[in-house]
Amino acid sequence: MLSCKELVAHSSDYLDGQLNLRERLGVRAHLAMCRHCRRFIRQMKVTQGVLRKLPDAAIPELDALAERLAEQRNKSRGD
């Protein structure tokens, strides 16, 4: 079973539907047992909802930063 720290590390990918079946099952098993992480995931969903309602302002610097961060995350995960 995942630790709370591992769940937090996977939380964005979980909410975005980017985990494989095994990882999703691990997250769900942990959430079934841990009320603190359930609260954390609920708050993440609220945050995502608020962010999605913000206007889309094209800022090239932010897009470039997001791409670099995604590349670094993928490298650190071994993808």
TrEMBL record:
Highest taxon of the lineage: Bacteria
Annotated ranges, domain Putative zinc-finger: 4-38
Protein's UniProt name: Zf-HC2 domain-containing protein
Organism (species): Aquipseudomonas guryensis
